[in-house]
Amino acid sequence: MVKISLLSIVIPCYNEEEVIDETIKQLKAFCAELVNLDVELIFVDDGSRDQTRELLKSYAANDSRIKFIGFARNFGHQIAVTAGIDVASGDAVVLIDADLQDPPEVIHEMITKWHEGYDVVYGTRIERSDESIFKLMTAHGFYRLLNWLSDTPIPLDTGDFRLMSRAVADTLRAMPEQGRFLRGMVSWVGFKQTALPYKRAKRFAGETKYSLRKMLRFASDGILSFSTKPLQISIGLGLFSAGLAFLGILYAFTVRVFTNSWVEGWAALMIAILFIGGVQLITVGILGEYVGRIYTEIKQRPLYIISEYQGFEKDDLKKNRSPVTHHR
User: Fold this and answer.
1) pLDDT digit string, tens, across residues 265-291
2) Which residues does residue 310 pair with via DSSP β-bridges, in sequence order?
3) pTM
4) DSSP line for 130-191
5) Stretch (H or E) spanning 124
């Protein structure tokens, strides 16, 4: 049986002052249940505007297991998780959100699976409490659409709640892309993976930080980062519209040569023009999304900037990607 000496738990936070006390309480209770296993709790503050950062710094000052890094601004959930993975020192790394919708006690089962030889143990939601029908339906549809489009199979109904071995964490650190979709990236790296079904709880307090706009952006990151099928679909639409245009040309030629009704068919002509124009705009939009991502990648800007940290030694942060790292 494989034994680990250190488990890193990464918790991204953004405006979580209403829940952070309970989150730390439950995580401490989880740590107390572990035997022969040290734990570090890495909280990443993603530019919170409330008292989240001050609360985390206070906890880090009084508990050596709690470590904290704070961004210079809001970079987004996936970037915050990435920063936590970058600085994690554990032989295994667990990702969990601060809102307690993913129960910490499930990590015990993840550790058991990891001991059995799995490099990735990802939580699969079999029940999602206190979520609207709209969100349930869109999430259900998104995962299935993503799998249909993606070149890499991605587990259905699975978020970022998971345990990863050191090998997987190091592989993710070697992936520099800006448009990060971690659950897809973890699927792409391979290794031995398994699902762990669990019931997702309702949010302990506060509101979700994923607005509809952010959810759409996240969905486009997942689709465009792991598939070229949208480009293939645009080619298919182009061929289809070209075929219709060719039929329209044959119709116009037939009417002109074999009949005296030269002005008929204006409605059909306008429909054809609008259809072809719409297809062209859709295709240009898809191409623009890919070109925009190329533009973002070639700028090679840092993924994040750490404005302050606490609980780490300077050498502990050598693997982070921030150009500056200030201790306060």
Assistant:
1) 665 666 667 667 767 767 777 777 777
2) 68
3) 0.70
4) T--HHHHHHHHHHHHHHHHH-SS---TTEEEEEEEEHHHHHHHHT---SS--HHHHHHHH-S
5) strand 120-128
